[in-house]
Prior knowledge:
Blueprint: H1 14-39, H2 54-63, E1 69-71, H3 77-82, H4 87-94, H5 128-142, E2 148-153, H6 160-171, E3 176-182, E4 185-186, E5 189-190, H7 191-194, E6 211-215, H8 219-234, E7 240-245, H9 263-272, H10 275-285, H11 291-314
Parallel strand pairs: 1-2, 2-3, 3-7, 6-7
Antiparallel strand pairs: 4-5
The structure holds thiamine diphosphate and magnesium ion.
Amino acid sequence: MATRKSAAKPNVSADELKKYYHDMLLIRRFEEKAGQLYGMGLIGGFCHLYIGQEAVVVGLEAAAEEGDKRVTSYRDHGHMLACGMDPNGVMAELTGREGGYSKGKGGSMHMFSKEKDFYGGHGIVGAQVPIGTGLAFADKYLGNDRVSFAYFGDGAANQGQVYESFNMAAVWKLPVIFVIENNQYAMGTAQKRSTSSAEIYKRGEPFGIPGQLVDGMDVLAVKEAGEKAVAHCRSGEGPYILEIKTYRYRGHSMSDPAKYRTREEVQNMREKHDPIEHIRQMLIDGKHASEDDLKSIDKTIKDIVNNSADFAKESPEPALEELWTDIYADEIPQHDA
Length: 337
Ligand SMILES: Cc1ncc(C[n+]2csc(CCOP(=O)(O)OP(=O)(O)O)c2C)c(N)n1
Ligand SMILES: [Mg+2]
């Protein structure tokens, strides 16, 4: 990854930088709290943390507009927070409580928000890619200029359904951005052990889909690439691929002892490439914020996260009758033409 530049780019305002700092730190602190609650036995089932990857979703959300859609894998808490979903509802879902986004019946991998155009949370590797393509098909069919973001991992990028989706998206010129969050591991398998060609962003070439490699530890680089991809899709030119190089600091899920990589490797990423520290340095070096300003942002976030944990602990477990609800649709949704 490129060496970090700490001088603020001239076209980025102090407020923007502060917002990215805030949004990335919210995800990190929220995930740390989720890890703690998991350790205390308050969260059951699967729990995949997003720590280290925060700049990917925060950068792309900065390039998105109201009404754009997103869908992702099981590593989904960061995407929910970044698109504006309520931390209380997300944490309560993690603890399986009534106040959660799926009334406590979905857990970490199965949350949705129609209001924020967040379409999940999917546990089957790669399954969200055709769904994201379908979301883009719906928008094209309805004749609006919305864009869909379909996020998936480097491991998922080796799945057949990804290429079926590429083909259909290219044939129909669908406004979908295929976002490959390349955190360099698929469970315990390093990308170089599983993948014949490391340049995933080039895999759209046979379909005529442009692709770009992006430094995912630099939120500004992600935003810039996101804006280019969004402009391409919105102007009707069809799909776009972003391969965003990032790194997950924690294990694949809470139950992963992470013996397949060295401590030094993780330490090196944390110390030299951390996306939050990067923005923090830009804010301080560019005199856009004082240490006290940053402390006050840290405090705001601590309060939000602590409140979400309190809410999640205090919310009751779903009533037994809830077992029989939300199984079949009561109404078939209709769209006005
Ligand atoms: C179809 C399918 N195969 C296997 C699994 C088990 N599995 C869960 S996550 C994962 C690795 C995916 O890695 P990647 O796409 O790089 O995403 P990351 O976890 O790194 O975000 C696997 C093999 C699954 N959930 N679904
Ligand atoms: Mg991966």
